[in-house]
Amino acid sequence: MSLMIAEVYDALVAAGSPDDKARKAAEALANYDSRFSRIEADMVILKWMTGTILVGILALIMKSFFLLAS
């Protein structure tokens, strides 16, 4: 059995949706939530990689500036 978001299920049932359709819709939303969590974790890694690259580029620019200034 798949995970289900209880609040979404309760809201759909209160809105008049049949029980089985409300359950399937809540399970589908729970699956999307886990996908978004995985994407957010990947984004954290990409942010760190981008920051590291920018620091390296800045270091190279500063190094070339100081070599030209002397």
Overview of the structural elements:
By secondary structure, the chain is an all-alpha fold. The protein has one domain (6-69). 86% of the residues lie in helices and 0% in strands. The protein has two helices and no strands. It has helices at 6-14, 19-69. α1 packs across α2. The longest helix is centred in the middle third of the chain and has 51 residues, at 19-69. The radius of gyration is 24 Å and the shape is rod-shaped.
Question: Which terms would index this structure?
Answer:
rod-shaped, 70 residues, mainly alpha
Task: Summarize the structure in short.
The protein has two helices and no strands. By secondary structure, the protein is an all-alpha fold.
Counted by DSSP, the helix tally is 2
| Largest sheet descriptor | none
Helix content: over 70%
Whole-number mean pLDDT:
86
Q: How is the quaternary structure best described?
A: single chain
Q: Outline, from the CA principal axes? A: rod-shaped
Q: Structural class from helices and strands?
A: mainly alpha
Total count of strands: 0
Low-pLDDT residue intervals, each spanning 5 or more residues: none
β-sheet strand percentage = under 5%
Radius of gyration: 24 Å
SSE order in H/E notation? HH
Q: Compute the number of structural domains.
A: 1
Distance between the termini: 70 Å
